[in-house]
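Thread: Modeling a multi-component assembly for a lab meeting

Hi all, long-time lurker, first post. My supervisor asked me to bring a structural picture of a complex we are working on to next week's group meeting, and I have zero experience with this. I have the sequence lines for every component (387 residues in total). Could someone generate the structure of the whole assembly? Inputs are pasted exactly as I received them:
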Amino acid sequence: MTRVDRRRLLAGLSGAALFGCGPSAVEYSVHSVFDDPAAGAGGASPFRTGQIVLSEAPGPYGILFSFAPEHFFRFTHSALVVTDPDGQPFVYDMSAEFKPTLAREPSGSLVGGVRRTPLADYVGMHLYVEVFEPPTNVDRARVAARVKEIMAQKIEFDAAWDYHDHSRMFCSEFVVDALAAGGAPRPPLVPLTHNPSLRAVLTWFGVTTVESLPAAALPRERRVAAFSVWPNHACADAYLEAKRELYRRFTPDQNIGNLLELDRYDVRLRPTVAEFLQRAPELYLEARSEPPEAELRARVSALAAEVLGPAGGFSRSARIE
Amino acid sequence: MWRAAGVTALALCLAGCIKVPDRVKLAFCAQPPSANHFGSGSAARSCCPGPPRVARFGKYSEPCAR
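Re: Modeling a multi-component assembly
Sure thing. I ran the full set together rather than chain by chain. Output:
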């Protein structure tokens, strides 16, 4: 798909157009903020089966789960592109929703499995999405076959993030399993946090494993596209840098309650954290080009000092993975 | 990891089904400003109000008060 065609794909997404089916309509405002010059040459679609989709959804959970790994990863959700017979791209992901049940813990009320969503709709559900080529020499037909097989088997979502038990799967386990069917290597697992307060919350959600596979730990190749609710890529970078700043400040002595609060049975961002995440991308609303990384970090750090307080002497390593 | 689209559905759970244990309530407390890296320390007062209080169905201790 050419750049123009991509815009046509997203024509209903840009500007505040309405997208809907039947009586309901969902309003999306999403921008294509990156086109790989090497992708889609000759008018072909840049989206192919086997591509990896990494994304950030709005809300407190993207922050909560960013803090779970012992290293910082920019994304908290992963999925796969599989095209249908006429070439239209669909996103397949393993996800779950809270459903009212009689369970006494959240994990018992998490219900989900493989979901199939048109790419444009999937993009519209997120703050920021990047699409990458899979590792080289992956057999894409086998990847697609494995995705369909998992879907046919009705494998359910794994709230415990247990990578060793494939009878249930979480998002990146699903992606790795499908890519492995096509010959891709399985990445090493990543240790999870030792922070006592976050551990208590994760345990409440059903996560007791000591290592798992964060979404952005997936091996991947060239980025082919990026979509954002913000008008340019710099805004998205600023948002992800703000997440990194929060991670850096979340030292082992910190309570997760410094960032999130319980609201009956749900969680929400504390006002200072919500304000920081709101204002960081707004630093670059008028940007015409990509700012140097050092400048972007300095501006986000200054905003953090203003909204959250000075960083002082505390800091946690937050190397980007 | 898992995503929670429509997370507010959790709040729709009938009262009395999901229980929030004290250790989780404690984890969601904000620390005082001097120890809080996120500028949310003043919220600690509302989270940890002090002595135990009597709730509708018996004695109930706020986790931070213990």
